[in-house]
């Protein structure tokens, strides 16, 4: 398709090397994993009596400790907004590749459109996907995004409120009634990422998104019904069964460090599909680069570090090794 990034042309050396390895009989891992339901939490219970409210908060904390992932319903974002968001996202990705690359034409900030993996040295390091990684200030600022309607503003505003609410609950369950998140995780520091995973000719060899952990406090994901999200639970990969009514929440590296390893930032990936494309939209709850992350617990597992320092180290490791090292770099 004219809209698809030129994966095969750009990474032809990796495809050639893969064919050569296949001829020598080198086996490839087949992405066949068991499907499961994530813990499902009804946030409507937060508006009920004290017992229901406390029980709901405890379920959120428990899932964050045991899974690092959970899904929520009655989250406050209407099905109409979610459907409009998905439809408009599909329309944006249908535009020709050269147009999407032209950030001036698309009215996105420089570097917003991303695809593939420039640092990949083998197919296993290549992400078969494209994305618009958009600062919230691009959405709500005076320039705005002429190519998208006010739906994105509605979506981002509501999801931002949900992220703040969940972060405060998780802090409270650690015994911290903290204003940290309201002070440091602002619209100017958070992001939306619209993702598209095109059909992939060799899904057994290429990920839609490489295994990784998220470098934020929380991620809130709205995905379609195609499926493909997989995560590590009890040492094995499991596939997340899509739920049309739910949003998926996962803990990021910063919350794991902030909670002194109480909450878990879990490795996850996206599998590719040979027949159909997949769409998702993620909200990343991040602080400013100057914000210092310090463990709320003794003895502290991690040394104090700024978010900017963490991001720079991640980028350096990906460039050097082809993958993210993450929190082990910051052990006390």
Question: Can you tell me about this structure?
Answer:
There is one protein chain. The protein has 332 residues and is of the alpha+beta class. It has a single domain, classed as Jelly Rolls (Sandwich), CATH 2.60.120.330. 34% of the residues lie in helices and 21% in strands. The protein has eleven helices and 15 strands. It has an eight-stranded mixed β-sheet with strand order 2-3-11-8-13-6-5-4. Helix 3 crosses helix 8 and helix 4 packs across helix 8. The termini are far apart. The model has no long low-confidence stretch (mean pLDDT 90).
Quickly give the CATH architecture. Sandwich
Number of helices: 11
The dominant shape is globular
- The Rg value, from CA coordinates, equals 20 Å
CATH H-level superfamily title: B-lactam Antibiotic, Isopenicillin N Synthase, Chain
Helical content class: 25-40%
Return the structural class. Answer: alpha+beta
Total strands? 15
Would you tell me which CATH topology applies? Jelly Rolls
Sheet of most strands: 8 strands, mixed
Low-pLDDT sequence parts: none
- Placed side by side, the strands forming the largest sheet appear as 2-3-11-8-13-6-5-4
């Amino acid at each position: 398709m004219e809209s698809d990034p030129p994966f095969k042309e750009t990474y032809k050396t990796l495809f050639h090397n893969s064919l050569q390895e296949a001829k020598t009989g080198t086996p490839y891992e087949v992405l066949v994993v068991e499907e499961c339901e994530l813990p499902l939490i009804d946030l409507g219970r937060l508006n009920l009596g004290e017992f229901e409210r406390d029980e709901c908060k405890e379920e959120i904390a428990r899932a964050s400790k045991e899974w690092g992932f959970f899904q929520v319903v009655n989250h406050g974002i209407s099905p109409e907004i979610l459907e409009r968001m998905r439809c408009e996202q599909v329309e944006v990705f249908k535009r020709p590749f050269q147009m999407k690359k032209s950030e001036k034409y698309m009215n996105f900030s420089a570097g917003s459109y991303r695809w593939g993996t420039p640092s990949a040295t083998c197919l296993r390091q290549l992400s078969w996907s494209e994305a618009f990684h958009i600062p919230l200030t691009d959405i709500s600022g005076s320039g705005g995004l002429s190519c998208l309607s006010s739906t994105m503003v509605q979506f981002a505003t509501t999801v931002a409120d949900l992220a703040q609410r969940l972060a405060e609950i998780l802090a409270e369950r650690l015994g911290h009634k903290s204003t940290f998140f309201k002070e440091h995780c602002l619209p100017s520091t958070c992001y939306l990422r619209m993702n598209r995973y095109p059909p992939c000719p060799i899904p057994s060899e290429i990920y839609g998104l490489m295994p990784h952990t998220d470098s934020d406090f929380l991620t809130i994901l709205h995905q379609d019904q195609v499926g493909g999200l997989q995560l590590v639970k009890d040492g094995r990969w499991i596939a997340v069964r899509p739920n049309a009514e739910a949003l998926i929440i996962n803990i990021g590296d910063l919350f794991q460090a902030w909670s002194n390893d109480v909450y878990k930032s879990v490795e996850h990936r996206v599998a590719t599909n040979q027949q159909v494309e997949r769409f998702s939209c993620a909200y990343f709850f991040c602080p400013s680069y100057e914000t210092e992350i310090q463990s709320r617990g003794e003895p502290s597992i991690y040394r104090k570090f700024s978010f900017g320092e963490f991001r720079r180290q991640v980028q350096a490791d990906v460039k050097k090794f082809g993958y993210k090292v993450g929190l082990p770099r910051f052990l006390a």
